[in-house]
Amino acid sequence: MFLEIRDGSSQIVLINGQPNVESGHNGYINFTIVIYSLNMPIGSKGPEFKERFMRVVHCTLRIAAGDIVTAFDLSKYSSACDLGGCTGALARELVQTYPEMKVNVLDLPEVIAHSSKFQPDGWDSSRVTFTSGNFLEDPLPEADLFILSRVLHDLPEGKLNHLLQKVSEACCPGRSAVLIAEIVLDEDTKDPRGPLQSLSMSDGKQRSGTEYKKLLEKHGFNSVQIRSTGNLLDAILAVKS
Q1: In terms of Cα–Cα distance, which of 74, 113, 204 is closest to 150?
Q2: Which segments constitute the O-methyltransferase C-terminal domain (predicted)?
Q3: Distance, CA of 159 to CA of 161 (rounded, Å)
Q4: Would you state the pLDDT for residue 124?
């Protein structure tokens, strides 16, 4: 399991050592994550810290990406935009699974500046592009499929609704969709992933499948499908009405 850092929080995740080459879940590399608290202001964290954090996100998505992109048949979508896509780990899994798809990774300039360090040697980058921007403030790139991976749970209500409305307005009714990767809480019992995730949250909210369905329908998405992947993250696919 993993946590992530957000502005205003001192809870962080760092990787202890480098990934090894032993095959793990779904054929991906195994790695060890150490979770601890660092008592220092966020503003004092320099490039080395940001790169370590990006490595945690990268490794986590390498574990979960295969189950996320195959939870639904996404072959009808020729273009996708991964909002806050960090190193592009999920984007690479998408283009490997769906040969006709191209993916644009949108993230903050300081993240994009480090993203090249995470690309494998010999990687054909012609179908994965990286764009600097703020998905809350800047216009969204055109795409058939928008992706939000571990974004919604950590946004306060106002920013959450603002972002979903932007995505909804960027979608073509009946053709475009949003793919969400989040921990979807069980309706009846407590998901053990939930308490761990809550340690890194500030103003956000964890949700059940029913809550995500109502939230997406509120912003004009229907045919909401939810898949429990058995992995670190679950998958939700919602088509614009």
Answers
A1: 204
A2: 44-222
A3: 6
A4: 77
Residue 179 token pair: 């793919």
Q: Is 25 one of the catalytic residues?
A: no
* Catalytic hit among 25, 58, 114, 153: 153
Kindly tell me the burial class for residue 238, based on how many C-beta atoms sit within 10 Å of its own C-beta (0-12, 13-18, 19 or more): buried
pLDDT tens string 111-158: 888 788 877 777 778 999 999 999 999 999 999 999 999 899 889 999
Q: Tell me, what amino acid is at 86?
A: C
**pLDDT, tens digit (0-9, with 9 covering 90-100), for 47-58:** 666 767 777 777
Cα 14 from Cα 50, distance rounded (Å): 10
To the nearest whole percent, how much of the chain has pLDDT over 90? 50
10 Å CB burial of residue 59 (0-12, 13-18, 19+) is buried
Q: Are strands 184-185 and 102-107 parallel, antiparallel or unpaired?
A: unpaired
Please tell me the number of Cα atoms within 13 Å of 200 on its side-chain side.
20
